[in-house]
Design goal:
The complex is a heterotrimer of chains A (313), B (308) and C (267). By secondary structure, chain A is of the alpha/beta class. Chain A folds into 2 domains: 219 residues, Rossmann fold (3-Layer(aba) Sandwich), CATH 3.40.50; 57 residues, Alpha-Beta Plaits. Chain A contains 11 helices and 13 strands. In chain A, strand 1 and strand 2 form a beta hairpin. Chain A is globular, with a radius of gyration of 24 Å. Chain B has a two-stranded antiparallel sheet with strand order 1-2. Chain B has 308 residues and is mainly alpha-helical. Chain B folds into 2 domains: 171 residues, Tetratricopeptide repeat domain (Serine Threonine Protein Phosphatase 5, Tetratricopeptide repeat, Alpha Horseshoe); 73 residues. Chain B contains 13 helices and 2 strands; from the N terminus they run H-H-H-H-H-H-H-H-H-H-H-H-H-E-E. The radius of gyration of chain B is 26 Å and the shape is flat. In chain B, a hairpin with a 5-residue loop joins strand 1 and strand 2. The two termini of chain C are 31 Å apart. The interface between A and C is medium-sized, with 36 and 33 residues.
């Protein structure tokens, strides 16, 4: 069964005071997400990622189209009991403590009374906030609130998770923690649908991604496919500033940066290149195949006219 | 079975409750009757009420005035015997807005009149109008109202004359006031005085209840005079012929009368036994003192016809 | 899946929401108004004992009940107008509505939470009023029991005002909601006059005036402060019909709020 099935979901806002002009927040979207996947929803700010999530959560009503989550309608409470949602820059009742909020939400999600306290503590530990259960939320930093947000999303053990910019507000350590958590969720067999504009995270985590821009879906694909393909090039880095003359003949693309040189040559020249360096007594730093990057794919979808640059991953 | 959508349930419930609320309000209005109005009995100090109203006393005065008129109207239509809330309502109205002249006029007419026409409280009426004069010393009509009550209802000729006299000295006073002062001082000319008073009221008021009341009184005075005149004619006829006339045509042939006499509403007078003259429809002519047959009981609901 | 299909009764979600609304009000220090009230009642009781000889009970009951009514209406408007709009603005609703909570359950829960807060508040105030009464009169008399009925009617007033505030909160900004709710409170106090006035008009004005007069909340019937202050009893029929009216009117307001909120896009 598909975890998420989106059929032509569309949202048009009418803006303006006197003469209303239509604003296409989301053009008809067709998208499927399978169970057990981590699915990345990529796009710049204002692309329609949050709109899509709000439509799926039933916070906003579509102008056209439908969607089914876990085979059920968007407003079905049985479905809602099996999903968790982390909105962008979440805000919670600041007069409650972390434990009170989680127990309240647990109650609303149908968690049994004697389980609530235990689950609250368990989930706070999981997100790296083991000692703040009794602290009022108004005293939490942005990063802490983000973690609470994740905590309330996973609290009731949902099958499917929706995260809107889960890394926002987190320092690098926090981001790593969240990445680890998402990996763990995947291992537990859960489906994760998250939106982000930070590509390295998507590349590291996702099974499949979709790129959205200006309210329109620009492309969908498996990350493995998009970033695979040794395109027959290798990248060599050595120390020093000297470029052996042999390289010119091999059609290499060389750049000197500080105390190192970086060159890209075709795969067949690998042996010749290594010989040239040895003969010149230059010290090799690294040799690796050039991969397509997700960033390249992303940029190509956003700006179809420009050729995809070969950028350092 | 699929549960009915929330919007359907909520809209039906809304409509249902709307209907139910109207019905409940009806019942509540019945239960409470004049309960809101009766609270005026508990206002021991209208001055305090004015202070509490925080400067919005004008609006509150209008509300109390409306309540007074409705209270009187609803009671009057049912021919009530007591109007105990009228005086407090008018007192509060005029305390909140001392310049609401029509309230004083209303009080002087309907507080004084005897039930079921009015509250039958001439002393309260006097107090109300005197308060009005204190707040509006240059309104001639208030002195007129005061004199009216003293003369017709309290038969206090000295105070009546004094009131008329003071009023007559004001620049735009009705010309009748000087004459009324004189007549009251003389204690004479009662019928003439009464007619002048009611005519003035009729001509100078804008309130339709007061106008209708005055018109009825004027008709009554006319009838009383007509009956007196006609009965005098009967007496003279008997002196002449030894018996009373049995029809007006007989009086006509005797040269005492021209045409068939009719009351102010157009109905003919009747000649009754013993030389008495009666009106055909006494129910239409409240306030008359003559022309009524023996044993006539006036209807509980007085008929005030539209003013002519 | 770890949770069973949604067989839980709506009350299992309405009640926690109500409780949370109550908790929010308390932590928002709304109950501090009781301190102001206590000061007022104490001051009044002492003053009255020295000045208004013979009518001490009258003044204490009048003042006390009027204060209970006004304080409560202010609270119900000030908190009521934000019940829904604050959650939309602060986006606390996002994580709430992604749970198996229906939108109408949220509205009803908020309503019950605020009404519960007001009932508790009134309870404490009642103690204050009776305390002041005891101080000036030195003992209770039988007619004092009617003060309880007056307090019950005041609570019914709060039920209506809260319903209205909630209705406005579901679609308009806090400022406009406050204006609307407050205006309706004033007009509602003169609802009986409005109906009488409507009866005196004719034609199309009559239809409009009558419609408005019946739509406006009828607070005049719920105000028995003056008779109770004079020791007058309150008829059982009046209690019955007032209760019915308050419940019906509040239900109307809540249905309106639910209908509006059901289809509202949360930006």
């Amino acid at each position: 069964m598909l975890a998420i099935k989106i059929l032509g979901l569309e949202k048009i806002y009418n803006v303006g005071f006197w003469r209303k002009k239509p604003k296409y927040a989301l053009r008809p979207l067709h998208l499927n997400v399978g169970e057990g996947e981590i699915f990345g929803f990529l796009g710049p700010n204002g692309a329609g990622k949050t709109t899509t999530l709000k439509l799926l959560m039933g916070l906003v009503f579509p102008t056209a189209g439908t969607a089914r989550i876990l085979g059920m309608e968007i407003d079905d409470p049985r479905m809602k009991a099996q999903i968790g949602f982390l909105p962008e820059q979440p805000y919670f009742y600041d007069y409650l403590t972390a434990r009170e909020l989680l127990e309240y939400y647990a109650q609303l999600s149908g968690v049994a009374a004697k389980e609530r306290s235990r689950k609250a503590d368990e989930v706070l530990a999981k997100v790296g906030l083991p000692n703040v259960a009794g602290l009022q939320l108004r005293k939490f930093s942005k990063g802490m609130l983000q973690r609470v947000g994740i905590a309330q999303a996973i609290l009731h053990d949902p099958k499917l998770l929706f995260f809107d910019e889960p890394m926002s507000g987190l320092d690098p350590l926090g981001r790593r923690d969240v990445r680890d958590l998402m990996e763990q969720l995947k291992h537990e067999g859960k489906t994760v649908f998250f939106s982000t504009h930070i590509l390295p995270d998507a590349e590291a985590l996702c099974d499949r991604v979709a790129v959205i821009h200006d309210g329109e879906l620009k492309g969908v694909g498996a990350v493995a496919d998009l970033t695979s393909g040794v395109r027959g090039k290798i990248e060599i880095i050595w120390s020093g500033r000297i470029i052996p003359p042999a390289f010119k003949g091999l059609g290499a693309d060389c750049h000197v940066t500080g105390d190192t040189v970086r060159a890209i040559v075709s795969e067949e020249c690998q042996d010749a290149v290594l010989d040239a360096l040895r003969n010149a007594h230059l010290r090799l730093i690294s040799l690796s195949p050039v991969r397509n990057s997700l960033e390249a794919y992303y940029v190509s979808k956003l700006q179809p006219g420009k050729a995809a640059a070969e950028v350092r991953p | 079975m699929k549960r009915p959508p929330v919007t359907l349930v909520a809209s039906s419930l809304l409509v249902l409750c709307l209907a139910a609320s109207v019905l409940t309000l009806h019942r509540l209005d019945e239960l409470r009757g004049h309960a809101t109005l009766e609270e005026v009995l508990y206002v021991s100090s209208p001055q305090a009420l004015k202070r509490i109203s925080l400067g919005y006393s004008g609006l509150l005065a209008d509300i109390y005035w409306t309540r007074a008129v409705q209270y009187f109207g609803s009671k009057h239509v049912r021919g009530a015997e007591d109007y105990k809330l009228l005086a407090p309502l008018l007192e509060i109205t005029t305390t909140l807005d001392p310049k609401l002249l029509v309230a004083y006029e209303f009080g002087s007419n309907f507080l004084t009149a005897k039930p079921p026409q009015g509250a039958g409280m001439p002393d309260e009426a006097v107090a109300l109008v005197k308060q009005g004069i204190r707040s509006n010393p240059n309104e001639w009509h208030l002195y007129y109202d005061l004199g009216f009550i003293y003369y017709l209802d309290l038969k206090d000729y000295r105070n009546a004359a004094d009131a008329f006299a003071r009023g007559s000295r004001l620049p735009d006073a009705h010309p009748f006031l000087k004459l009324m002062a004189a007549l009251a001082a003389q204690k004479g000319g009662e019928a003439q005085m009464a007619r002048m008073l009611w005519t003035t009221t009729f001509e100078t008021t804008t309130n339709k209840d007061i106008k209708a009341n005055a018109a009825a009184h004027l008709r009554a005075l006319r009838v009383d005079q007509d009956v007196t005149t006609l009965e005098e004619l009967q007496a003279r006829y008997r002196d002449k012929t030894g018996h009373f006339a049995s029809s007006f045509s007989e009086l006509e042939s005797a040269g005492m009368l021209r045409g068939s006499p009719r009351d102010p509403l157009g109905a003919p007078y009747k000649l009754a036994a013993g030389g008495k003259v009666e009106v055909t429809d006494p129910d239409n002519l409240p306030f008359i003192e003559k022309g009524l047959s023996i044993g006539y009981i006036p209807p509980p609901k007085p008929k005030l016809l539209p003013a002519d | 899946m770890k949770g069973a299909p949604m067989k839980a009764a709506p009350m299992s979600r309405v009640f926690p929401i109500a409780l949370n609304t109550f908790r929010e009000a308390v932590r928002d220090r709304v109950l501090y108004n009781l301190v102001a009230f206590a000061v007022l009642m104490s001051g009044a009781a002492i003053l009255v004992g020295q000045i208004s000889v013979g009518i001490e009970k009258l003044v204490v009951i009048n003042l006390g009940l009027t204060a209970v009514s006004l304080f409560g209406v202010v609270i119900s408007i000030f908190i009521g107008i934000g019940l829904v709009s604050k959650e939309i603005d602060k986006r606390t609703l996002y994580t709430l509505l992604s749970r198996p909570v229906r939108r109408w359950e949220f509205v009803v829960g908020k309503f019950l939470g605020l009404v519960g807060t007001l009932v508790l508040n009134t309870f404490f105030m009642a103690i204050g009023v009776f305390g002041a009464l005891l101080y000036v009169a030195h003992h209770f008399a039988k007619p004092d029991a009617w003060v309880l009925v007056a307090l019950y009617f005041i609570i019914l007033q709060f039920v209506i005002v809260t319903g209205l505030a909630l209705l406005f909160s579901s679609f308009s900004s806090p400022l406009m909601s406050a204006v609307f709710a407050f205006s309706l409170f004033i007009v509602g106090a003169f609802a009986e006059d409005l109906r009488g006035f409507a009866r005196m008009t004719k034609g199309i004005t009559r239809w409009i005036a009558t419609g408005a007069a019946y739509l406006v909340p009828n607070f005049s019937a719920l105000n028995v402060i003056t008779p109770v202050a004079h020791g007058q009893p309150v008829s059982g029929q009046l209690i019955l019909y007032n209760t019915a009216y308050a419940l019906i009117y509040a239900t109307m307001a809540i249905c309106g709020a639910v209908l509006i909120f059901e289809r509202r896009n949360l930006k």
